[in-house]
Amino acid sequence: RSSRRNTSIANHVYRQTMTSIFWFAAFAARQLPLSPPRAEGLCRFSGITLTAMCLVAPYLWALHGLAQPLLYLAQRNSGQPLKVSPT
């Protein structure tokens, strides 16, 4: 019974996490094109840092994966020197 309850809780957290990721992606897409400062602000507002490589939860890896291309595109479109690589 405890195992089933733990699985249920894990599934609930996973669904919430995936919903958050999709909301972030949709919000970011509506904000394009972004200036680099605005892109960085959006990522900071969402709790994302590009230097946090020891991310514990899988959803943080997913958000990190969304943030880096977002910042790269913003920098590339601004004509400023790139500080973030596309990968």
From TrEMBL:
It comes from the Bacteria. Keywords: Membrane, Transmembrane, Transmembrane helix. The chain crosses the membrane at residues 12-29, 41-61. This is Uncharacterized protein. It comes from Pseudomonas putida (Arthrobacter siderocapsulatus).
